[in-house]
Design goal:
This is Putative membrane protein SpoIIM required for sporulation. By secondary structure, the chain is mostly helical. The protein is built from twelve helices and no strands. Helix 5 packs across helix 10.
């Protein structure tokens, strides 16, 4: 579509929207949010087909004003915390699905590198996991208790220590994004190689099935570290690829969006810590169907909340968005 035709087709609704932002037209906060979705679709179209055009600059400015307007005038729900995780965050995170995919691919490449390296070099796992951990695990394997390390310590102590450590790793993965995304990629690679080496280490000893005990908590833990890595890339990429914003404005927006993503992971880290502290230690005695039930339920919750649920919310928002009319 030619730019002139695109402008002619959408000009009237943009004018109404602009008037609404200037308080010349009364509009409810919920309708304003719905209109904002339409505007961002037009903005995305303009970014693709009319880069560096005046139309793109206009829509970008209008979208920025709308964003501020929505978050200033939108009616607060009675329970802001519930509203954030139920509605606000999933719809917000939809725009970063592509970044999440890139983060996942980076992590999986690292896992493969760790696995292949361990298969071909017995000393590699010691380099990655450390002699102390490897020697201890070998002793436990010889005793017939390869997962004995997860039975040590008190329930509450393990829960608190693990949860705090996992949140620390997530914050580091996010914060290192300030180094032009390279820092976050390093954290992802480090954890991915470690996971690949760990799994292959048990495979080499012929007890790969025993790692199901680790996946009781690891399913959520690893998944959410990847999501925290996504937050770091959101911040780092905002500076590298500012699009129509200045680098300063783009970076500030990316840092804010990345922080919101990190905050969303905290409840999941708490759940993972609880499972590791109170359930994983009984994993080897647990019936296989219960263990795998917990693993697949954990995976379903993560995939649904961060991938499918945002898509469903976006579709619902578009379907219920009222048509703009001139007044």
């Amino acid at each position: 579509m030619r730019e002139a035709s695109f402008v002619k087709q959408n000009k009237e609704k943009w004018i109404v929207f602009e008037k609404a932002l200037d308080n010349n037209v009364k509009i409810s906060p919920d309708d304003l949010a719905s209109y904002y979705i339409q505007l961002t679709n037009d903005l995305a179209y303009a970014q693709t087909y009319y880069p560096e055009s005046k139309t793109l600059l206009y829509l970008n400015s209008l979208a920025s004003q709308a964003h501020q307007k929505i978050y200033i005038t939108k009616k607060e729900s009675k329970n802001k915390i519930v509203s954030f995780w139920r509605d606000e965050f999933p719809l917000f995170f939809r725009q970063y699905h592509k970044t999440l995919l890139h983060t996942f691919l980076i992590f999986m490449v690292a896992v493969v590198i760790g696995a292949v390296s361990t298969l071909n070099d017995d000393s590699f796992v010691r380099l990655i996991l450390g002699d102390g951990y490897v020697n201890m695990t070998i002793e436990n394997i010889e005793k017939g208790e390869p997962m004995a390390v997860y039975k040590s310590g008190s329930n509450i102590g393990s829960f608190l220590g693990i949860t705090i450590n996992n949140i620390r790793v997530a914050i580091i993965a996010f914060a290192f994004g300030v180094f032009f995304s390279v820092g976050t990629i390093y954290v992802l690679f480090s954890n991915g190689i470690m996971l690949g080496a760990f799994i292959t280490f048990f495979y080499n000893y012929g007890i790969l099935e025993k790692t199901s005990t680790v996946w009781l908590h690891g399913t959520i833990e690893i998944s959410v570290i990847v999501i925290a890595g996504c937050a770091g890339l959101v911040m780092g990429n905002s500076f590298l690829f500012p699009k129509t914003y200045s680098r300063r404005v783009a970076f500030m927006k990316g840092a804010k969006d990345g922080l919101k993503i990190v905050v969303s992971t905290i409840p999941f880290f708490i759940i993972a810590g609880f499972i590791e502290g109170f359930i994983t230690r009984y994993g080897e005695q647990m019936p296989w169907f219960l263990a795998y039930g917990i693993i697949f339920l954990s995976l379903f919750i993560i995939v649904y909340y961060y991938i499918f649920y945002p898509i469903l919310l976006e579709k619902a928002a578009k379907q219920h968005a009222p048509k703009l009319q001139l007044t």
